[in-house]
């Protein structure tokens, strides 16, 4: 027969449950604030984010928002991390289901384009953030640059795999190929979002095909 729980252990269980409940609620609240901040940042940029603006959007007090982030800088970094995580979920991981080589590289670009076409109406934090933080140092710029470099490294590796499989020229510089592909995305944002040039998406796709044809083995 098992021994009855001691009074100390019996009282500890409800306390633990309450503690875990508060922690879970805190995590959910922080996630909701980050969601609102991400939506705000895509329209007004990371520099437009502030504890006060977010308090207005969420209906919380400034002190309530501040309690979850501690500073405007930490808020901005949380938004960058959330954006990067969603970018990976929508662009990187689905493409990993494709066969290595050109099928995967095409999938990476296709998913990237799909996300870009949506962000033409809202905005890309990678691009707007680069404009805002290209001339300053600090943790926010570091977090943003790290996210972009992680994505660029994944694209470069996909290009190298195409070379290893004999699908792209072995003497081609993977960084040059990536530079040209990345240039299509940047040009697309400028043409479609700023100039509102018709046919920009089609031109970007045609440009990608042209790059692959030029570097084909």
UniProtKB/TrEMBL annotation:
Keywords attached to this entry: DNA-binding, Transcription, Transcription regulation
Taxonomic superkingdom: Bacteria
Keyword Signal part of the UniProt annotation: no
InterPro entries xrefs: Homeodomain-like_sf, HTH_TetR, Tet_transcr_reg_TetR-rel_C_sf, TetR_C
Region (Disordered): 1-28
An example molecular function term from Gene Ontology annotations: DNA binding
Low complexity compositional bias, start-end: 1-15
UniProt-listed PROSITE patterns: HTH_TETR_2 (PS50977)
HTH tetR-type domain span: 27-87
Regions recorded as binding DNA: 50-69
Pfam families for the chain: TetR_C_13, TetR_N
Protein name per the record: Transcriptional regulator, TetR family
Native organism: Oryzisolibacter propanilivorax
